[in-house]
Specification:
Blueprint lengths: L4 E2 L1 H13 L6 E2 L13 E2 L11 E3 L29 E3 L8 E6 L9 E3 L2 E6 L2 E6 L4 E7 L8 E3 L2 E5 L4 E6 L5 E6 L10 E3 L2 E5 L4 E6 L5 E6 L9 E3 L2 E5 L5 E4 L6 E5 L10 E3 L2 E5 L5 E5 L5 E5 L10 E3 L2 E5 L4 E6 L5 E6 L9 E3 L4 E5 L4 E6 L5 E6 L9 E3 L2 E6 L2 E5 L1
Parallel strand pairs: 5-31
Antiparallel strand pairs: 1-10, 2-6, 3-30, 4-22, 6-37, 7-8, 8-9, 9-10, 11-12, 12-13, 13-14, 15-16, 16-17, 17-18, 19-20, 20-21, 21-22, 23-24, 24-25, 25-26, 27-28, 28-29, 29-30, 31-32, 32-33, 33-34, 35-36, 36-37
Length: about 400
């Protein structure tokens, strides 16, 4: 049985609105006024001494180093599915000017993915493509269960569902290309795709590689990980962590394990990657840096408490946020914490960082958006949205997009 059915209510309302000349279902609301910045102190700190971890390697053919760079599109893609972690956007910090607010029929769930000016969002059990420039809902597909955060590659959108399906859609139209019933597996979010391959890992630790065009399973392996993190594809290698065996690396073509490392500490936040180095946060609050190809240990940084989201890395600096609301910057050469700013409230979302590192943005659990200077950690401005965030903020098209409840709000 197909898991899709037309989103008749949305399409009928859109058609009726167009015919009658009324406003579309995605209404534009009044601007939210920015609040005066709260006094939040940025504290320069030093990291604790590095502590190395045991690394186990598995023999196997080592692929030649690739010269292909995992470049971030100019409009901001986005998260781990494209070989990048965090949300990158245009150079320069935003001024904090509120823009448009769009109201969706249901609560926004799952972090948006920005690609070529289009925002791909989950609205309850509906996956949709929204063009904010044209203020137009391009397509919407209703599912039987909630989807993971999708990945995009080669004009296709890939995602898993809570009821154990893996699905590919045509990104431009939302047309179903193929779907595979994965025998009730629940998949970590987001999934990962690159060129003509689609990778997903289940909560029980099963790692799958599918052909992106046909959905045919290329290989399948058991990682032994409990509740693994989302996969990261980077530097011709698949990286993943879990709650029992630390971190692992897999060959993307053949599926064998390249290496495994860690000291028994669990991981529940996805790794990050930049310039051949992988960064693994663990539940003890440490971030470990390893060379992705050979697992050579570089350093350990301890930003005082466990991270709420993957480290965002760009150039020679990384930015992170802890669950208790501390935003920090770390130097990628030695792992020294450069500054640390404690926000008033816990943080449950990832950071959005401009591509030059000047603007760092996050939303607290009470719905307050904070903008920090990426170099100093000083709070530049904040905007209260009045309700908890529904998803991570994302940079696209020269603006920051914030999801709270069923509203998608623009900040420039």
């Amino acid at each position: 049985m197909r898991i899709f059915r037309p989103l008749l209510a949305v399409f009928c309302v859109l058609c009726a609105s167009a015919a009658a000349g009324n406003e579309p279902i995605l209404t534009i609301e009044s601007h939210i006024q920015p609040a005066a910045p709260q006094v939040v102190t940025a504290t320069p700190v030093s990291s604790s001494p590095a502590v190395s971890g045991e690394v186990k390697r598995k023999n196997g053919p080592t692929p030649a180093p690739s010269s292909r760079a995992h470049k971030t599109p100019s409009d901001g893609l986005y998260r781990a599915g494209g070989g990048c972690a965090g949300c990158f956007g245009p150079n320069g910090a935003l001024s904090g000017k509120p823009g448009r607010t769009f109201t969706f029929p249901d609560r926004l769930t799952g972090s948006p993915v920005a690609y070529r000016g289009v925002l791909y969002l989950s609205c309850g059990q509906t996956l949709c493509a929204f063009d904010p420039k044209r203020e137009k809902l391009l397509w919407a597909v209703q599912l039987k269960s909630r989807p993971t955060v999708p990945a995009l590659a080669g004009g296709r959108m890939f995602f898993g569902t809570e009821d154990g399906n893996l699905v590919a859609l045509k990104a431009e139209t939302g047309a179903v290309l193929w779907q595979l019933n994965a025998k009730g597996m629940t998949f970590s979010s987001p999934v990962t795709a690159f060129e003509n391959a689609f990778f997903a890992v289940s909560s029980s630790g099963t790692l799958l590689c599918l052909d992106g065009a046909s959905g045919k399973v290329k290989w399948q392996t058991e990682t032994g990980l409990n509740n693994p993190t989302a996969l990261l594809f980077a530097d011709e290698i698949l990286l993943v962590g879990g709650q029992n065996l630390g971190y692992q690396a897999y060959h993307p073509v053949y599926g064998y394990r390249r290496w495994q490392g860690g000291d028994g500490t669990s991981m529940d936040v996805s790794p990050s990657w930049s310039d051949g180095t992988a960064y693994f946060p663990d539940t003890r609050g440490r971030v470990r840096a390893l060379r992705a190809q050979n697992a050579r240990f570089l350093w350990t940084s301890e930003p005082f408490s466990p991270l709420a989201a993957p480290l965002v890395v760009s150039g020679e600096r990384g930015w992170g946020v802890t669950a208790d609301g501390a935003v920090f910057a770390v130097g990628l050469t030695e792992g020294k914490v450069i500054w640390r700013t404690q926000l008033p409230g816990r943080v449950l979302t990832a950071l959005a960082v401009s591509s030059d590192g000047h603007g760092v943005y996050t939303v607290t659990e009470k719905g307050a958006l904070y903008a920090l200077d990426g170099n100093t950690g000083m709070v530049q401005w904040d905007i209260p949205f009045g309700e908890p965030p529904a998803a991570d903020p994302v940079l696209s098209g020269g603006a920051l997009w914030v999801c709270c409840g069923n509203k998608l709000s623009e900040v420039r």
